[in-house]
Design a protein that fits this description.
mainly alpha; Transpos_IS110; about 65% helix; Transposase IS116/IS110/IS902 C-terminal domain-containing protein
Length: about 80
């Protein structure tokens, strides 16, 4: 196997996890709040996958709050 010493991201529904990962890839590049959070984690010495999963969780909590409040996306929401 090619993952010796690495951990796979698993748990939950694979399609939801994949969509959240792809959304986070885009958010890390184009969303100022998520990008700043990601860069702060990387600067603190976190590994790529650790930083990405943390950003996925942050994005998910923002999206859940938006759905709960029934509000559209606003940049200051996160």
């Amino acid at each position: 196997m090619g993952m010796r010493g690495k951990r796979a991201i698993f748990g939950g529904r694979a399609t939801v996890r994949t969509m959240l990962y792809m959304a986070t890839l885009s958010a890390v590049r184009y969303n100022p709040a998520i990008k700043a959070f990601y860069n702060r984690l990387i600067a603190a010495g976190k590994l790529y996958k650790v930083a990405m999963v943390a950003c996925m969780r942050k994005l998910l909590t923002v999206l859940n709050a938006m759905v709960k409040a029934m509000q559209p996306w606003t940049p200051d929401f996160s």
